[in-house]
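Q: I'm writing up a methods section and want to include an example of the input and output format. Could you take the sequence below and give the corresponding predicted structure tokens, formatted cleanly so I can copy it straight into the document?
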Amino acid sequence: MKTSMRFFLEQELLRDGNYDVVTSGLQFYDGSDMSLLIADTGDEVLAEAGGLAAGQIWQSAFKDWVYEDVPALNPSVILRNWPIAFRASGVFIEGAFRAPTDATYPHTIDYLNGRVIFHSPLPLTTRVYANFTYKTVHILGLREFNNQLRGATLEQQYLNNPRTANQLIYPSGSTRITPLPIIFIEDVGRRFGAYQIGDRSLVCHDDLNFEIWALDESTRDNLIDVVSFQQRKSFPIINYNIVPLPLSGLWNTISPEFVPYSGLALNQPLPGPQFSGFNPVAFRGFIEETELQDLDSLFSESVTQSPVFERATVKMRVVTYPIMPTTPFGFDVVLEGFNGTENNPL
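A: Here is the clean output for your methods example:
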């Protein structure tokens, strides 16, 4: 349920244009090139990525690169002439494009952490850059909330402790703080109603909580609208017991069995010999009600007491109708005293 909602909401955010396109020459506020990748040579980072050498990990300032086609954009996004998102397909090294399978510079794209990992080290003076799209709104599980909160007041986007360093330093490693805005999701309650007469559907009610965190009020309010206006929609609950997740491995590359979300949502049969013939959608979730529960501002400890975060909680009630087995209620068992050939339902 939670994973399916996460992918569904990511699609809705992309549909509303919550992404930025970075191409060569696009500048930061300080005039530096936003597409430039920087070598991450920290011992802890290299060890965490599998014991790599300096010059193998090159990262951007942005996490959460888009890895699949964006759904049809909303009319308001089209009217703003918003650029079309795309998936990074390689890197430029000293001005020449290199695909991941390049014979000289083979590499893997870590979409989740916004970095490129080369199969052998490059000189640290090499000019490496990439064209990519990154998501401007991030979705995490609520269990990741505490670690995020611990450091988020001092590290945001591409600044590292700007209150003291006051210079541009890319955040380091796959455990670096995810920048705001963030939507944290958790399934906080589940209860069951009566079976639906006629088709053996058990009525299941889930309560999902969305913790929305942003740096300003307008961004927070926009995300409240995106989440709460999903009311009365339905979304596919995909069976991830058989469907591979889109990103896989230590480096979060595209899964070998990758199937675009658009195909999964349409319940198209899975390709490949391992899953051939299986349909990915197990049930559909019906968003019965959304409710804005609270709005809040967190303030700094400075004399001015200026706001640091804007937050909100949206609660969503989702109903599903799991189809139960067609056998009688209870289990067929062999009762003691019978000859072993007569089964009786409890």
